[in-house]
Amino acid sequence: MKKTVAFLLAAVLIALPALQVSGQDKDTVQPLKKQYSALGLWGIGLKGTTDGVGFEVIKGFGSRLNIRLGYSFLKIPFTYPIAMEGISVTATANLKFGGANLFLDFYPVRNVIHLTAGVMQNGMKHSVSVTPTSEFPYGDIMVPASEMGTVEAVITPKLKFSPYVALGFGNTLSREHRVSFNFEMGALYHGAPQLDLAGTKMLSPMASENNEQVIMTAIAQYQWYPMISMQLSFRII
Fold first, then answer.
1. What is the CATH number of domain 40-235?
2. 217-229 pLDDT, tens per residue?
3. Radius of gyration from C-alpha coordinates of the chain
4. In sequence order, which ranges of the chain are alpha helices (DSSP H)?
5. I want to staple 73 with a disulfide (CB 3.0 to 4.6 A). Which of 56, 98, 104, 160 is the partner?
6. H or E stretch covering 142
7. Is the CB of residue 195 less than 8 Å from the CB of residue 213?
8. Are 147 and 200 in contact (CB under 8 A)?
9. Taking the complete model, does pTM exceed 0.70, yes or no?
10. Which residues pair with 169 in a beta bridge?
11. Spatial contact of 232 and 46, defined as CB atoms under 8 Å apart
12. What is the DSSP letter of 203?
C-alpha cells in the first residue's frame, strides 16, 4: 500500500510542470498590433524623376498611409544648328520641368506595392527660338541675317495644378528600417498644351494667330506626361 501511494505521489510531481506549461499556453496573450505615435514616422526623401531631381518631406500614418510634400526641378538648355535650302538657322531651346507636389500613398500590400494620387504645381515651360545665321535670298537681293529677326515658341501646361496618379513598388517611408527605396510609375495630367508664338522683323508674319492655332491643334493630343521616379528615403523618427 505504501509503495502504491509513493508511486502515485511521484507521478503527480512529475506531471505537475507539464500541466503548468499547458495552462500557460492556453493563457498566452497574443502580441498586440504595433502602434505608431501620431507625432512619429517622419522622414525625408531624395528623388530623381522624369520631371526633375528634388526632395520630399514624408509623414506616415499607421502602417498603410504616407503623405509626401516635395519639390523637383530640371532645366535642359541646348542649341542646334539647322541648314535648309538657301538659309542656315540656329534653334535655341530651354526645357524646364518641375514644381511642388503633394502626394498620398496607400499600401494595399504593406511595404511592397502602393497606389499614389495627388496634385502637382506644374512648372513646365518649354521655349524654342529660331534665329537665321546666314543671308536670305529675297528676290534679287540678299537680306542680312541681322535683318531677318527671330521666331520664338513658348509651350506651357493648360493646368497649373495638375492631377497625378501612380503605381509604386517599395516604401517611401519604411516602418522597419531607417533607409528605404521606392520605384514609381505614373502620369501627370496637364491638359492640352498652350502655345505662344512671337516673331520680330521679317519673321513676324510666321507668328500669326492662324499659325499658332494650327500648331496648338497638332499638339493638343499630348495631355498626359509620363512620370518615372526613383527615391531613397530616410526615416528620422
1. 2.40.160.170
2. 999 999 999 999 9
3. 33
4. 2-27, 145-148, 209-219
5. 98
6. strand 141-143
7. no
8. no
9. yes
10. 113, 183
11. yes
12. G
